[in-house]
Amino acid sequence: MQVEGKSVVVTGGGNGIGRALALRFAELGVRGVTIGDLDGEWAHQAAAKVEEAGVPALGMACDVGDQAAVETLVDAAESAHGPVDIFCSNAGYSDEVGNLEQTVDAWRRIIDVNLLAHVWAARRVVPGMVARGEGYLLQTVSSAALITGPSAPGYTTTKHGALGFAEWLTLNHGDQGLRVTCLCPNAVFTGMFGRGPDDESIVPQDQALGEVLTPEHVAHVTIDAMTGSEPFLVLPHPRVGESFLRKAQDYDAWLDRTRARLRRMSAESR
Protein backbone atom coordinates (compact mmCIF):
# COMPACT_ATOMS: atom_id res chain seq x y z
CA MET A 1 0.00 0.00 0.00
CA GLN A 2 1.15 3.50 -0.83
CA VAL A 3 0.11 5.91 1.92
CA GLU A 4 1.07 9.07 0.08
CA GLY A 5 -2.02 11.03 -0.90
CA LYS A 6 -4.37 8.97 1.27
CA SER A 7 -6.94 10.22 3.76
CA VAL A 8 -6.42 8.79 7.23
CA VAL A 9 -8.60 8.65 10.36
CA VAL A 10 -7.09 7.76 13.74
CA THR A 11 -9.19 7.22 16.86
CA GLY A 12 -7.53 7.56 20.23
CA GLY A 13 -5.17 9.80 18.30
CA GLY A 14 -4.55 12.43 20.95
CA ASN A 15 -1.93 10.42 22.80
CA GLY A 16 0.14 7.26 22.73
CA ILE A 17 0.15 4.94 19.73
CA GLY A 18 -2.63 6.85 17.96
CA ARG A 19 -0.77 10.15 18.10
CA ALA A 20 2.44 8.49 16.93
CA LEU A 21 0.57 6.88 14.01
CA ALA A 22 -0.94 10.22 12.97
CA LEU A 23 2.45 11.95 13.01
CA ARG A 24 4.14 9.12 11.11
CA PHE A 25 1.44 9.17 8.41
CA ALA A 26 1.99 12.93 8.12
CA GLU A 27 5.73 12.39 7.59
CA LEU A 28 4.87 10.04 4.71
CA GLY A 29 2.77 12.63 2.89
CA VAL A 30 -0.83 11.58 3.33
CA ARG A 31 -3.57 13.85 1.95
CA GLY A 32 -5.14 14.57 5.31
CA VAL A 33 -5.43 13.22 8.85
CA THR A 34 -8.53 13.26 11.05
CA ILE A 35 -7.90 12.63 14.73
CA GLY A 36 -10.61 11.63 17.17
CA ASP A 37 -10.02 11.32 20.90
CA LEU A 38 -12.16 11.24 24.02
CA ASP A 39 -10.07 14.24 25.13
CA GLY A 40 -10.92 16.87 22.52
CA GLU A 41 -8.05 19.14 23.54
CA TRP A 42 -5.54 16.34 22.99
CA ALA A 43 -7.10 15.71 19.57
CA HIS A 44 -6.70 19.38 18.61
CA GLN A 45 -3.10 19.43 19.84
CA ALA A 46 -2.23 16.31 17.84
CA ALA A 47 -3.87 17.78 14.74
CA ALA A 48 -1.77 20.93 15.17
CA LYS A 49 1.37 18.76 15.26
CA VAL A 50 0.31 17.06 12.03
CA GLU A 51 -0.23 20.43 10.36
CA GLU A 52 3.27 21.47 11.42
CA ALA A 53 4.44 18.64 9.16
CA GLY A 54 2.58 20.25 6.27
CA VAL A 55 -0.46 17.96 6.19
CA PRO A 56 -4.05 19.22 6.60
CA ALA A 57 -5.52 17.86 9.82
CA LEU A 58 -8.72 17.90 11.82
CA GLY A 59 -8.96 17.13 15.53
CA MET A 60 -12.21 16.56 17.38
CA ALA A 61 -13.64 14.96 20.48
CA CYS A 62 -15.01 11.48 19.83
CA ASP A 63 -16.32 8.78 22.14
CA VAL A 64 -15.83 5.68 20.02
CA GLY A 65 -18.19 3.73 22.26
CA ASP A 66 -21.01 5.81 20.73
CA GLN A 67 -21.93 4.71 17.19
CA ALA A 68 -23.27 8.16 16.29
CA ALA A 69 -20.00 9.78 17.40
CA VAL A 70 -17.97 7.45 15.16
CA GLU A 71 -20.24 8.24 12.21
CA THR A 72 -19.89 11.98 12.91
CA LEU A 73 -16.09 11.61 12.96
CA VAL A 74 -16.12 9.91 9.55
CA ASP A 75 -18.53 12.50 8.16
CA ALA A 76 -16.16 15.26 9.25
CA ALA A 77 -13.16 13.43 7.78
CA GLU A 78 -14.90 13.03 4.43
CA SER A 79 -15.94 16.68 4.37
CA ALA A 80 -12.39 17.80 5.13
CA HIS A 81 -10.27 15.31 3.17
CA GLY A 82 -12.49 13.21 0.93
CA PRO A 83 -13.19 9.45 1.14
CA VAL A 84 -11.45 7.65 4.00
CA ASP A 85 -8.69 5.39 2.66
CA ILE A 86 -7.18 4.25 5.97
CA PHE A 87 -9.11 3.95 9.22
CA CYS A 88 -7.03 3.31 12.34
CA SER A 89 -9.37 2.00 15.01
CA ASN A 90 -6.96 2.62 17.85
CA ALA A 91 -8.90 3.87 20.87
CA GLY A 92 -9.24 1.57 23.86
CA TYR A 93 -8.75 1.24 27.59
CA SER A 94 -8.46 -1.31 30.36
CA ASP A 95 -11.01 -1.95 33.05
CA GLU A 96 -9.91 -1.22 36.60
CA VAL A 97 -11.49 -4.19 38.34
CA GLY A 98 -9.43 -7.31 37.81
CA ASN A 99 -11.98 -9.85 38.98
CA LEU A 100 -15.60 -10.94 38.54
CA GLU A 101 -16.91 -8.14 40.78
CA GLN A 102 -16.92 -5.71 37.85
CA THR A 103 -20.38 -4.16 37.36
CA VAL A 104 -22.62 -4.87 34.40
CA ASP A 105 -22.40 -1.21 33.35
CA ALA A 106 -18.60 -1.43 33.38
CA TRP A 107 -18.75 -4.54 31.19
CA ARG A 108 -21.07 -2.78 28.74
CA ARG A 109 -18.81 0.26 28.56
CA ILE A 110 -15.62 -1.67 27.80
CA ILE A 111 -17.44 -3.79 25.21
CA ASP A 112 -18.64 -0.59 23.53
CA VAL A 113 -15.16 0.96 23.43
CA ASN A 114 -12.86 -2.01 22.86
CA LEU A 115 -15.06 -4.14 20.62
CA LEU A 116 -18.11 -2.41 19.17
CA ALA A 117 -16.11 0.68 18.20
CA HIS A 118 -14.40 -1.49 15.57
CA VAL A 119 -17.83 -2.58 14.35
CA TRP A 120 -19.19 0.99 14.16
CA ALA A 121 -16.14 2.11 12.17
CA ALA A 122 -16.33 -0.82 9.76
CA ARG A 123 -20.07 -0.36 9.17
CA ARG A 124 -19.42 3.24 8.21
CA VAL A 125 -16.27 2.98 6.05
CA VAL A 126 -16.08 -0.54 4.60
CA PRO A 127 -18.96 -0.17 2.09
CA GLY A 128 -17.22 2.82 0.50
CA MET A 129 -13.87 1.06 0.47
CA VAL A 130 -15.40 -1.99 -1.21
CA ALA A 131 -17.14 0.20 -3.78
CA ARG A 132 -13.80 1.86 -4.62
CA GLY A 133 -11.99 -1.50 -4.65
CA GLU A 134 -9.49 -0.58 -1.96
CA GLY A 135 -9.24 0.47 1.67
CA TYR A 136 -7.29 -0.32 4.81
CA LEU A 137 -8.38 -0.96 8.38
CA LEU A 138 -5.72 -0.88 11.08
CA GLN A 139 -7.11 -2.32 14.30
CA THR A 140 -5.06 -1.69 17.43
CA VAL A 141 -5.88 -4.78 19.45
CA SER A 142 -3.35 -6.12 21.99
CA SER A 143 -1.16 -9.07 22.80
CA ALA A 144 -4.01 -9.91 25.21
CA ALA A 145 -6.02 -11.04 22.18
CA LEU A 146 -3.47 -13.78 21.52
CA ILE A 147 -1.99 -14.67 24.91
CA THR A 148 -4.14 -14.01 27.96
CA GLY A 149 -2.00 -12.76 30.80
CA PRO A 150 -2.31 -10.43 33.79
CA SER A 151 -4.97 -8.23 32.20
CA ALA A 152 -8.43 -7.54 33.59
CA PRO A 153 -11.37 -9.69 32.41
CA GLY A 154 -13.12 -7.03 30.33
CA TYR A 155 -9.91 -6.07 28.55
CA THR A 156 -9.04 -9.70 27.79
CA THR A 157 -12.52 -10.59 26.55
CA THR A 158 -12.98 -7.55 24.32
CA LYS A 159 -9.52 -7.85 22.78
CA HIS A 160 -10.24 -11.46 21.84
CA GLY A 161 -13.52 -10.33 20.32
CA ALA A 162 -11.87 -7.50 18.37
CA LEU A 163 -9.40 -9.94 16.84
CA GLY A 164 -12.23 -12.26 15.84
CA PHE A 165 -14.11 -9.41 14.19
CA ALA A 166 -10.99 -8.39 12.26
CA GLU A 167 -10.59 -11.97 11.04
CA TRP A 168 -14.22 -11.92 9.88
CA LEU A 169 -13.67 -8.67 7.99
CA THR A 170 -10.62 -9.89 6.10
CA LEU A 171 -12.20 -13.25 5.30
CA ASN A 172 -15.41 -11.72 3.98
CA HIS A 173 -14.09 -8.56 2.30
CA GLY A 174 -10.45 -9.28 1.55
CA ASP A 175 -11.32 -10.31 -2.03
CA GLN A 176 -13.01 -6.92 -2.51
CA GLY A 177 -9.89 -4.83 -1.93
CA LEU A 178 -10.13 -4.44 1.85
CA ARG A 179 -6.90 -4.88 3.78
CA VAL A 180 -6.96 -5.48 7.54
CA THR A 181 -4.02 -5.39 9.92
CA CYS A 182 -4.22 -6.04 13.66
CA LEU A 183 -1.57 -4.38 15.79
CA CYS A 184 -1.00 -6.61 18.82
CA PRO A 185 1.69 -5.09 21.04
CA ASN A 186 2.54 -6.01 24.60
CA ALA A 187 3.61 -3.15 26.90
CA VAL A 188 3.87 0.30 25.28
CA PHE A 189 4.68 3.58 27.06
CA THR A 190 1.25 5.19 26.65
CA GLY A 191 -1.38 6.74 28.87
CA MET A 192 -1.83 3.37 30.56
CA PHE A 193 1.64 4.02 32.02
CA GLY A 194 0.73 7.63 32.80
CA ARG A 195 2.46 9.13 29.76
CA GLY A 196 1.04 12.43 28.47
CA PRO A 197 1.14 13.57 24.81
CA ASP A 198 4.43 15.49 25.12
CA ASP A 199 6.06 13.35 27.79
CA GLU A 200 9.71 12.62 26.94
CA SER A 201 10.62 10.86 30.18
CA ILE A 202 12.60 7.63 30.13
CA VAL A 203 10.59 4.58 29.17
CA PRO A 204 9.91 2.49 32.29
CA GLN A 205 10.64 -1.19 32.33
CA ASP A 206 8.40 -3.77 33.96
CA GLN A 207 9.75 -7.15 34.95
CA ALA A 208 6.31 -8.74 34.77
CA LEU A 209 5.43 -7.35 31.33
CA GLY A 210 8.88 -7.48 29.76
CA GLU A 211 10.21 -4.89 27.35
CA VAL A 212 8.26 -1.63 27.18
CA LEU A 213 8.34 0.05 23.75
CA THR A 214 7.71 3.66 22.78
CA PRO A 215 4.60 4.55 20.76
CA GLU A 216 6.87 6.06 18.10
CA HIS A 217 8.71 2.77 17.61
CA VAL A 218 5.42 0.87 17.41
CA ALA A 219 4.03 3.34 14.86
CA HIS A 220 7.09 2.99 12.62
CA VAL A 221 7.01 -0.82 12.78
CA THR A 222 3.29 -0.87 12.04
CA ILE A 223 3.28 1.50 9.07
CA ASP A 224 6.40 -0.16 7.63
CA ALA A 225 4.44 -3.42 7.69
CA MET A 226 1.37 -1.81 6.12
CA THR A 227 3.44 -0.39 3.27
CA GLY A 228 5.36 -3.64 2.89
CA SER A 229 3.91 -7.12 3.18
CA GLU A 230 0.53 -5.97 4.61
CA PRO A 231 0.41 -8.73 7.26
CA PHE A 232 -2.74 -9.48 9.20
CA LEU A 233 -0.78 -9.45 12.48
CA VAL A 234 1.86 -6.91 13.48
CA LEU A 235 3.74 -8.02 16.60
CA PRO A 236 6.24 -5.35 17.77
CA HIS A 237 7.24 -7.63 20.66
CA PRO A 238 8.65 -10.85 19.10
CA ARG A 239 8.02 -12.85 22.27
CA VAL A 240 4.27 -12.43 21.75
CA GLY A 241 4.44 -14.44 18.54
CA GLU A 242 6.64 -17.05 20.18
CA SER A 243 4.19 -17.47 23.05
CA PHE A 244 1.24 -17.60 20.66
CA LEU A 245 2.94 -20.40 18.76
CA ARG A 246 3.61 -22.37 21.96
CA LYS A 247 -0.02 -21.88 22.95
CA ALA A 248 -1.25 -23.27 19.63
CA GLN A 249 1.09 -26.26 19.79
CA ASP A 250 0.00 -27.35 23.29
CA TYR A 251 -2.89 -25.34 24.68
CA ASP A 252 -3.10 -27.22 27.99
CA ALA A 253 0.61 -26.88 28.71
CA TRP A 254 0.41 -23.17 27.92
CA LEU A 255 -2.54 -22.76 30.32
CA ASP A 256 -0.61 -24.59 33.07
CA ARG A 257 2.48 -22.39 32.60
CA THR A 258 0.48 -19.18 32.48
CA ARG A 259 -1.60 -20.13 35.52
CA ALA A 260 1.61 -20.74 37.49
CA ARG A 261 3.06 -17.42 36.28
CA LEU A 262 -0.04 -15.51 37.39
CA ARG A 263 0.10 -17.20 40.81
CA ARG A 264 3.72 -16.05 41.21
CA MET A 265 2.85 -12.52 40.16
CA SER A 266 -0.06 -12.42 42.59
CA ALA A 267 2.13 -13.64 45.45
CA GLU A 268 4.86 -11.11 44.66
CA SER A 269 2.39 -8.22 44.65
CA ARG A 270 1.21 -8.91 48.18
Structural account:
- With 270 residues, the protein is α/β, with parallel strands linked by helices.
- The chain is 49% helix and 13% strand.
- It has helices at residues 16-27, 40-52, 67-81, 104-132, 153-173, 215-226, 238-249, 251-268, and strands at residues 7-11, 32-37, 57-61, 86-89, 135-140, 178-183, 233-234.
- Helix 5 links the parallel strand 5 (135-140) and strand 6.
- Helix 1 packs parallel to helix 2 (40-52), helix 1 packs across helix 6 and helix 3 packs parallel to helix 4 (104-132).
- The mean pLDDT is 93.
Radius of gyration, in Å, reads 18 Å
Question: What level of helicity do the residues show?
Answer: 40-55%
Count of DSSP-assigned helices: 8
Uncertain stretches = none
Widest beta sheet: strand line-up: 3-2-1-4-5-6-7
Largest sheet: 7 strands, parallel
Total beta strand runs: 7
What is the overall shape?
Answer: globular
Distance between the termini: 49 Å
* Overall mean pLDDT: 93
Helix and strand element order: EHEHEHEHEHEHEHH
Structural class: alpha/beta
Strand content: 5-15%
Question: Which features characterize this protein?
Answer:
single chain; 270 residues; alpha/beta; seven-stranded parallel beta sheet; 7 strands; 49% helix
Gist?
By secondary structure, the chain is α/β, with parallel strands linked by helices. Helix content is 49%, strand content 13%.
Write the layout of secondary structure elements.
Layout: E1 7-11, H1 16-27, E2 32-37, H2 40-52, E3 57-61, H3 67-81, E4 86-89, H4 104-132, E5 135-140, H5 153-173, E6 178-183, H6 215-226, E7 233-234, H7 238-249, H8 251-268
Parallel strand pairs: 1-2, 1-4, 2-3, 4-5, 5-6, 6-7
Helix pairs in contact: 1-2, 1-6, 3-4, 4-5, 7-8
